[in-house]
Amino acid sequence: xxxxxxxxxxxxxxxxxxxxxxxxxxxxxxxxxxxxxxxxxxxxxxxxxxxxxxxxxxxxxxxxxxxxxxxxxxxxxxxxxxxxxxxxxxxxxxxxxxxxxxxxxxxxxxxxxxxxxxxxxxxxxxxxxxxxxxxxxxxxxxxxxxxxxxxxxxxxxxxxxxxxxxxxxxxxxxxxxxxxxxxxxxxxxxxxxxxxxxxxxxxxxxxxxxxxxxxxxxxxxxxxxxxxxxxxxxxxxxxxxxxxxxxxxxxxxxxxxxx
Length: 259
Ligand SMILES: [Zn+2]
Ligand SMILES: [Zn+2]
Hints:
This protein is an alpha+beta fold and 259 residues long. The chain has helices at 52-55, 73-77, 86-91, 150-167, 220-224, 229-236, 241-258; strands at 12-13, 18-19, 32-36, 42-49, 58-61, 94-103, 106-109, 116-118, 138-139, 142-148, 178-183, 190-195. The strands form three sheets. Strands 3, 4, 5, 6, 10, 11 and 12 form a seven-stranded antiparallel β-sheet that branches. Strands 8-7-9 form a three-stranded antiparallel β-sheet, with no helix packed on it. α6 runs antiparallel to α7 (241-258). The model has no long low-confidence stretch (mean pLDDT 90). It binds zinc ion (2 copies). Residues 110, 112-113, 115, 117, 125, 127-128, 130 line the site of one zinc ion.
């Protein structure tokens, strides 16, 4: 039996009229507590296209799925540039990792503004700034995707997994919570993960509080799927998110017909 079944996600974007992916946000305002839910992270080669979504920027998965492929317009555009060129560094695909996690960051409903606020360093509501130092915080317990690069996954989480396995009789990375402390913002952002002792997840932690059903995990294969050339070209032209997602839906439907 698989560790956890992949089912369709339930988050739904009303404007885009499509399911959306809830990514963990690392910020220096509060510590994030996560339980990894996949035994292995999935590699994704991602481009960040700054002009996409009308200049707000979006990520695309590189369509060069094998090293000998050269269909990706971004890789082609920097082919002649020297390795140290900043333009090249900005445009080539970067190795990223994704995994399902259960966000266990302590949260409480702010009595002043009704926001589900995480426990910030300042003990104030993240939205309205009310003092929440006496509030009763509980783990959020929401399935999300954690994405990170080599520093967080290879240098951070791999080391934690090895050390914990040694210290706790082969404990798997899914058997303990990890606390992530973030310092700095943007390019200076540093994320330091620290594991807690292994403890079984309470059975109810994985349930959806509204429906009582087990929360679905995101399909990592789907999230790692290479972007179509049409999608990437739309992004390079600065197309809106709606147009880009519409192109994605179309190419999936065509694929289903072909299969
Ligand atoms: Zn590429
Ligand atoms: Zn508030």
